Amino acid sequence: MAASVNRPVEAVGKVYKQQKLCNTSVTIPRYKYFDISQGLFLTAYLEQQLKPGSFEQHTVNYLIDRAGLSSFDAAFHNDKTGDPAYSPGVTLKIIFSCYSRGIITGRPIEYACKTNIIVKAFARGAESGYDTITRFISGQAEAVKDLFPRRRPRVTRRGSSGENCSP
Q: What is the pLDDT along the chain (167 residues), one digit of tens a residue?
């Protein structure tokens, strides 16, 4: 038996040995290694992530940008000291966007601010912490309720506003 020559070959993240026996070589193809669980650095323009006509652009941006947010100003007392606060409009956009996806608690919303490009676009690139989000949700509940007028009950052809009536 002839002497074998060993040379490492990388294929799919593992090192194999290439053996040469009697002037016959057995080769193993090499492929680029990739791991789909690994994060990527991507260039993203946040403004381009909110497509015209999408739910986010049309509904969330439309509602918040046209709402009067002055009722939220009284809750912030950091005009001279303290860290600048996130705008109530930005925070509301984050919360409504997450709520529309079924994300309703602080830590998952914080995770969405870090990983979901649409939520990150609403946050204008900031990564709001869960404590900031939960404090806003619990402390500003009345201001959010007052922000949008209550819906009037739907009146049917019969003149009643009951839920079981047909149109």
A: 444 445 454 444 454 455 555 556 667 788 888 788 887 787 888 878 888 888 777 778 778 888 878 888 777 777 777 777 788 888 888 988 898 889 988 899 999 988 888 888 888 888 888 888 888 888 888 888 777 665 545 545 554 444 444 44
Cα gap 85→79, rounded to integer Å: 10
pTM, full prediction = 0.62
- Residue 5, CA distances (Å) to 22, 24, 25, 104, 114 in order: 10, 11, 10, 61, 50
Q: CA-CA distance, 147 to 22, in Å (whole number)?
A: 83
Residue 62 belongs to some domain of the structure: yes
Tell me, yes or no, whether 57 lies in a domain.
yes
Domain containing 52 equals: 46-74+84-147
> Do 147 and 71 touch, CB atoms closer than 8 A?
yes
